[in-house]
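Question:
Write out your own:
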Amino acid sequence: MPPPSNLEQFQLLPDRPAIRLDSRLVCKYEVLSVVGKGSFSQVLRVQDRITKRYYAVKLVNTDQDFGAVNNELTILGRVKHPFVIRLEEVFRSPTKLFIVMEMASGGEMFDRVVAKGRYTECEARLAIKMLLTGLDYLHRNLITHRDLNLKICFIGNDTRPDARLLITDFGLAKQTKSQDERMTETCGTPEYIAPEILLRIPYMNKVDCWAVGVIAYILMSGIMPFDDDCRSRLYTHIITANYIYYPQFWSGSEQAKHFVDSLLGRKILKKNYKYPERKKNLQTKLNQKTEYNTVVSHRSVSRLVIPCKHVPLHQCRGGRRGPTKPKGRGHVGSRAAKNQKGVGISALSRVRQKKRL
C-alpha cells in the first residue's frame, strides 16, 4: 500500500478498521460512522466541529470512471432549493473525492413505503406536492432528472408524514440549452422509464412527469404499476399503459386515479394523441387550484405518450423483474430483503448497476 500523502491520513472507525481520509476533511468534521457502502463508493456520517450539524460525506475513488459523479457535482453546484439535496463542499485528494452533502437521516421513501405498506391519499398528496415543487424548480433551470424513483427520494431530518422530501442522485440528469431541446439517450430505472425513451423518440423534460405518476401510484397502493418477470413484457406494459387499480391495495380516491391516469397517459393513448409541442411549465400548473389540491392540475403535462399497438422487443434487453399482478412478491414491501438499504445521499453504485438499458 502506498504511503498516504500529506493531504491524507488514516482514521479508525467503529464500522471499519481503517479509512484513508483527507486531512482537511478531518480538521473540519468529526467522522462518526460509515452509513452506507456500494461497489464504487461509501458514505460517512460526520459532524461539523463548530456548528455541530450533521452531514453525509460520499467517498469516490478517482481511479474509477466517475463521470456520473462529475455530472452530479456540476448540476448540484448550480441549484439551491428546499426539496433538492444540498451540496456543501468537495475535497479532492490524489486518490479520492470527498463530497460533503446535506444529511437526509429520514432515509429513502422506498423504505418508508415498505414499512407502512402504503400511504394514505393525504400523505401521498403532501409528498407528491413537494416532489413536483422541486421538479418544477429543476425544469425552470433547464435540468431534466431522467431517473426519478422512490429510491432517490429521501426524507429530511424528521419522521413526520409531512417531513421534507429531497430529490437526490443527479448522475443521469442533463441540463439543456432551452426548454425545447430534446434528448435521445436511453437511460433510467426500468419500472419508472417513460414510453418515448423506450421507443427511441427524442424527448423533453416531461419524462420526469411520467415518473411522478409511477411514484404516486406506488405511494397509494404499495405495488408497482408496471412490473413483470420479463423485461420485454415490462416495457410492453409501460408503452401500452397497462396497469390496474387493485381494490385491495389502492388507498386513493377517484380523483387520485384521475391524477395518476393523466400522468401515465391512459386517456391520451385512447385519444391517439401525437407527440405535442412543449406544454406550460410546472409552476403554472402548481398555481392552478383544484378539488384534488394543487397536484391534480398537472394532468396536462404528461400528454407525451406515443400510442402504439406493440413494443419493438428487439430494442429491449431481458432481465428478471417482479410480477405485474399483486401476488406476494409483487408488493413493494416484499422486496425489502432484496434491496440494499439506502444511505443518506445518492450512491455511485446505483448509477453503475441499473442505468443503461
